[in-house]
Design a protein that fits this description.
Blueprint: H1 6-11, H2 16-36, H3 49-62, H4 66-79, H5 94-102, H6 106-129, H7 134-147, E1 153-159, E2 162-168, H8 172-191, E3 196-199, E4 203-209
Antiparallel strand pairs: 1-2, 2-4, 3-4
Length: 214
């Protein structure tokens, strides 16, 4: 229950309509927070002293609490790490990947991206999410490719009937060529979408028509 500060009551005169309106807004905000906040559970874990020290040090460096950091680590494991060996993914140095791409000409990279885009995303998403739809495909790009795969930075915006996705990366021009072919092929095979792409040496952008509006 919201309590009005005594100083405010003494200094200001509130009519009953204002008080009821502000009270309703306060309760609405509380209800919205309850609806949007995910349910949580309290657990106790025992850590080695060294691990506890590392967590505290890293949390301070990131400007977050140890609790928040542990939540990030567990979320990463649940969303990504536990699937690594099952979907044949490995961790690779970015410099090594860039060097490999630079050994191919542009046309060979397009062919490679197109071929891999027809197979890998659908197999991975089906194992990971058990269903293929626009949401799971974009989640694959955002999480597997970008957030946890560290191959780029994902951003999107939904305007009217068009969803625009932008990915920034550090794989050079040939990385953009590969991603364009890979995602273009994946979107065509899984969703039947012919997306419009724009690329630079460090980014690519594509638009998806929101078919639910049609």
């Amino acid at each position: 229950m919201y309590k009005w500060p005594q100083s405010s009551i003494r200094k200001h005169k509130f009519d009953i309509f204002s008080i009821l309106t502000l009270s309703w807004i306060a309760n609405l905000g509380s209800d919205m927070n309850q609806e949007t906040r995910p349910s949580t559970v309290t657990r106790s874990f025992r850590f080695e002293n060294e691990l506890s020290y590392i967590l505290e040090e890293e949390a301070e460096r990131m400007g977050i609490s140890v609790n928040a950091l542990v939540g990030i680590i567990l979320r990463r494991y649940c969303d990504f790490t536990r699937y690594l060996s099952k979907i044949d993914m490995i961790v690779i140095n970015r410099e090594f990947l860039t060097f490999l791409l630079d050994t191919y000409d542009d046309d060979s990279i397009r062919k490679m991206g197109t071929k891999l885009g027809q197979i890998i995303p659908s197999d991975t998403i089906m194992f990971w999410k058990k269903e293929i739809n626009e949401y799971s495909v974009l989640e694959y790009i955002e999480k597997i490719i970008c957030r946890y795969g560290h191959l780029g930075t994902y951003d999107e915006i939904l305007q009217s009937e068009v969803r625009t996705v932008v990915i920034r990366h550090r794989l050079g021009k040939k990385g953009s060529i590969f991603f364009q072919a890979y995602f273009c092929s994946a979107l065509k095979v899984m969703l039947g979408i012919d997306a419009n792409f724009e690329i630079t040496d460090s980014s690519l952008k594509f638009d998806i028509i929101n078919r639910s509006k049609n």
